[in-house]
């Protein structure tokens, strides 16, 4: 019985998955932090503020991380994830406004 070395493409896939998970975690933290401070916010304003924070590399007061490319689709995906988890909710009369 001979063991074959692990394929390089498998390591690359794991690294990509890990990077995507870190990005999603950072985005979810940013969304939560912004909505905690604002209590409620129009979804368009939230997306803009998260993208702006990603470009500047800011998580909050005094905290910084490496800036990375972030698109509205990434932010909206995280918003849907947080809505499904119950961390965020929409106003019934104005579904485009999110609350923490």
TrEMBL record:
Domain of life (superkingdom): Eukaryota
Protein name (Swiss-Prot/TrEMBL): CUL9 protein
The Cullin neddylation domain, residue ranges: 19-96
């Amino acid at each position: 019985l001979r063991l074959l070395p692990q394929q390089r493409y498998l390591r690359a896939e794991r690294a990509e998955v890990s990077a995507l998970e870190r990005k999603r975690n950072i985005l979810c933290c940013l969304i939560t932090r912004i909505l905690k401070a604002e209590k409620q916010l129009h979804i368009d304003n939230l997306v803009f503020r998260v993208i702006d924070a990603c470009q500047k590399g800011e998580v909050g007061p005094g905290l910084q991380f490496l800036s990375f490319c972030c698109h509205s689709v990434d932010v909206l995906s995280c918003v849907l994830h947080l809505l499904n988890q119950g961390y965020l909710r929409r106003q019934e009369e104005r579904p485009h406004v999110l609350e923490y």
